[in-house]
Design a protein that fits this description.
Blueprint: E1 6-11, H1 32-44, E2 48-54, E3 95-100, H2 117-123, E4 128-134, H3 136-149, E5 153-162, H4 170-180, E6 184-186, H5 188-195
Parallel strand pairs: 1-2, 1-4, 2-3, 4-5, 5-6
Helix pairs in contact: 3-4
Length: 196
């Protein structure tokens, strides 16, 4: 029963946020293999896996062309919006795919904002969330802050996150902020030991 109350939330591991994409996080080439191993372990342990992704319209308000802060990225139906090359989404009923930020006038970073993620987790009696993915200082941070706000016991898998780091120190500041609201910072192996 313990495993069924836990969820792994994989945040925005998409082509445009990986090396070679238009808005790459740092060192994403070293992310996919250990992330796949964690996903496989979760499926084996019957832990719910959630995969979030930016799913923007072509005229999204966050884009430079619309006066926003970011280059055009993760446009619906384009290769850049696809999950990262090599990321293995298991063919399992335990997988939830959350598309976020699909309204052109809405700019949000959290996987909980304007989605049904909270309801999906509560319907499955999830109490504990572990977050990983891209980017530490934006969508991972916002998702973690909202997970805590929603009442989930929340962990951040520090070896399975990658920052954009627009400004030096953004990643460290994000980790400190997540910890300050009650999230637990763990490596994936540490989280697995606690989950067994």
């Amino acid at each position: 029963m313990l495993a069924m109350k836990r969820s792994l939330v994989v945040v925005d591991v998409q082509r445009d946020f990986c090396e070679g994409g238009v808005l790459p996080a740092r060192n994403t080439s070293g992310l996919v293999a250990p992330l796949n191993a964690a996903i496989a372990w979760c499926i084996q342990c019957q832990i719910i896996c959630v995969f979030t992704r930016d799913w923007h319209p072509v005229n999204h308000c966050s884009f430079h062309s619309q006066g926003g802060p970011w280059p055009t990225h993760c446009v619906q139906g384009t290769p850049g919006a696809e999950f990262a090359a090599g990321l293995q989404l298991p063919n399992s009923a335990l997988v939830i795919d959350i598309e976020k930020d699909s309204d052109k006038a809405n700019m949000s970073y959290s996987a909980f904002e304007n989605t049904n993620l909270e309801a999906e987790l509560l319907a499955r009696r999830i109490t504990d969330v572990a977050a990983c993915g891209i980017a530490t200082d934006y969508c991972v941070k916002a998702t973690v802050l909202d997970a805590v706000r929603c009442g989930f016991r929340t962990s951040v898998l520090t070896d399975l996150i990658r920052p954009i780091e627009v400004h030096t120190g953004d990643s460290a500041n994000a980790l400190a902020e997540m910890k300050s609201v009650g999230a637990t910072l763990l490596t994936c192996q540490e989280w697995m030991k606690l989950t067994r």
